[in-house]
Specification:
There is one protein chain. With 417 residues, this protein is an alpha/beta fold. It contains 12 helices and 9 strands. Helices cover 64% and strands 11% of the residues. The strands form 2 sheets. Strands 5-2-1-6-7-9-8 form a 7-stranded mixed β-sheet, with helices on both faces. Strands 3-4 form a two-stranded antiparallel sheet. Bound molecules: S-adenosylmethionine (SAM). S-adenosylmethionine binds next to helix 4, strand 2 and strand 3.
Length: 417
């Protein structure tokens, strides 16, 4: 078998066969998260070989599987009506996500596949009523992965499948939590022709129509284990490339984000360094200011010491002055005492003087009285003598002797005085 394939003429023909082209198409939807990347080459191949008239996907999220189907339709120019059904809110297995997922996918989808495809934002049960029975050639079930949910989805949509109908189930090889596709898949394999891919969480291909496409019918009828393994390995190998590329893109995105973060951090660090530089400069200015303040303190200390010395000198001077003042005060007190003594003496002297004056007055009065008396006596004596003389010599008195006493002549009075 291997030897045949390696024959020169055949190997080139096989390598360049157009039929193989879908296996090597580059996915259009690279760069978004999905567990479906490893099945993209099979999706391309399946659409190419089936050329379905109607294609429906239940569970689209970021649109990796759906875009693979649509990309094949687009590249091959098929007359396929495509519909993707999802609430675009998420579920308990895929997790809940935001409005941006639908908005971004719609932009991508409408630009590329809007002419033959539509996104139906509905539940699977709501959407089923918009499809006629027996109208769907290819159905991909990738909603909630519990046993009950996947069984319900299959049972609800089975009537819509055409005679050529093929149903794909993702996650047939996940055995974790309440994932139950594997179990339901086991039951379905008993009822319909099928092929199971193990890689990429498992993809089940179920030929539910009685007139399945030749290629799909052929795939589902391969029983030789070596061929089954070869088919699985080859699809797994070429599918892995897109998973790796997706991871690489994710890592690149993560690296870009980190580089952006690093650049932002570098800017922050540069900003902080600048701030530190400014603060160091500010600190140096403050240090200089502190030195200046210290210097002025030192100058003031010196001034204070100088003033202290002056103050001490003034205090000493003050003490001397105080001593002098006390001495003077004492001298003044002594003088005042002496003045009091002198005043007392003056008062005594004044009293004595007054007494003396009084006695002088008295003596003078006595003397005056005595003098007056003496003068009277003299006068009387003189008058007596004048009278006697007038009597004796009346001519000298200018009067006749009448015996009347007259005043002596003035010169006599004076002479007697
Ligand atoms: C695993 S994701 C689909 C992955 C997608 N096929 C891909 O290529 O990556 C499951 C999606 O099914 C949707 N879903 C689950 N149950 C649903 C329901 N009953 N009706 C509508 N959408 C549902 C969720 O919103 C989620 O986006």
């Amino acid at each position: 078998m291997e030897e045949n394939l390696l024959r020169k003429d055949l190997s080139i023909d096989v390598l360049t066969a157009k039929e193989l082209s879908p296996l090597f198409w580059r996915p259009a939807r690279l760069g978004v998260v999905s567990a479906w990347w490893e099945h993209v080459p099979f999706a391309h191949w399946l659409v190419a070989v089936m050329q379905p008239r109607s294609l429906v996907e239940l569970g689209t999220h970021n649109g990796v599987s759906y875009s693979a189907f649509c990309e094949a339709v687009s590249r091959l120019g098929l007359d396929t009506h495509c519909h993707a059904v999802d609430t675009w809110h998420g579920d308990e297995h895929a997790g809940l996500y935001g409005e941006n997922v639908y908005a971004e996918l719609k932009r991508f989808h409408d630009a590329r596949y809007g002419s033959f495809s539509a996104l139906l934002r509905l539940t699977f049960d709501e959407a089923v009523n918009y499809f006629a029975d027996g109208s769907v050639d290819l159905l991909h079930i990738d909603g909630l992965h519990s046993y009950d949910a996947v069984r319900h989805d299959f049972d609800t949509w089975l009537p819509k499948m055409s005679e050529r109908g093929v149903v794909l189930f993702h996650d047939v090889n996940v055995r974790a939590g309440d994932f139950g596709v594997w179990k339901f898949w086991g039951e379905l394999q008993e009822r319909y022709p099928s092929f199971t891919f193990i890689h990429g969480y498992g993809l089940g291909v179920l030929a539910v129509g009685s007139a399945a496409d030749d290629a799909v019918g052929h795939l589902c009828s391969v029983s030789d284990l070596a061929r089954v393994s070869a088919i699985r390995e080859r699809f797994a190998l070429i599918g892995e490339r897109w998973n790796l590329e997706y991871r690489d893109l994710e890592r690149t995105k993560e690296l870009n984000k980190r580089e952006q973060t690093i650049a932002t951090l570098d800017e922050d660090v540069a900003g902080l360094r600048h701030q530190i530089g400014q603060q160091v400069e500010h600190a140096a200015q403050l240090e200089r200011a502190v030195e200046e303040v210290k210097e002025s303190h030192r100058a003031r200390d010196i001034q204070i010491q100088h003033q202290d010395r002056e103050l001490n000198a003034l205090r000493a001077q003050n003490a001397d002055l105080e001593t002098a003042r006390v001495t003077l005060h004492k001298g003044v007190q002594d003088q005042l005492q002496r003045a009091d003594v002198l005043t007392a003496q003056i008062e005594e002297l004044s009293a004595s003087r007054a007494e003396l004056i009084a006695s002088n007055h008295a003596l003078r009065a006595k003397l005056d009285a005595t003098r007056e008396a003496d003068a009277e006596r003299i006068r009387l004596g003189f008058a007596d003598r004048h009278q006697e003389r007038c009597l004796e010599e009346p001519h000298r008195c200018g009067q006749k002797s009448s015996g009347v006493r007259s005043e002596p002549p003035e010169e006599e009075q004076k002479g007697s005085a």
